[in-house]
Amino acid sequence: MVFISSDEFCVIWLEAYLRFNYHKNEFGLFETE
Predict the structure, then answer these.
(1) How far is CA 20 from the centre of its chain?
(2) CA gap 20, 2 in Å, rounded
(3) pLDDT value at position 3?
(4) C-alpha angle with apex 30: 7 to 19, nearest 5 degrees?
(5) pLDDT of residue 21
(6) Exposure pattern of 19-28 as b/e (b: 16+ CB <10 Å)?
(7) Given CA atoms 14, 18, 20, 21 in this order, what sign does their dihedral have?
(8) How far is the C-alpha of 25 from the C-alpha of 31, rounded, in Å?
(9) Rounded to the nearest 5 degrees, what angle is found at the Cα of 11, between the Cα atoms of 20 and 22?
């Protein structure tokens, strides 16, 4: 198990989350209208 500070974890998680959502938007998966 890798121990990192909570701040580091939040930054990494946020970056991954935003990137994931960006790619979902790129493929139009959020356009449900």
Answers:
(1) 5
(2) 23
(3) 75
(4) 30
(5) 77
(6) eeeeeeeeee
(7) positive
(8) 8
(9) 20
Q: Report residue 24 as tokens.
A: 């979902």
Positive or negative, the CA dihedral 10, 16, 19, 25 is negative
Tokens of 2: 């890798």
Question: What six digits make up the tokens of 23?
Answer: 């790619």
Q: Mind listing the pLDDT tens digit for each residue in 1-27?
A: 677 688 888 899 889 888 887 766 666
For 1-33, where are the alpha helices, taking DSSP H only?
Answer: 6-26
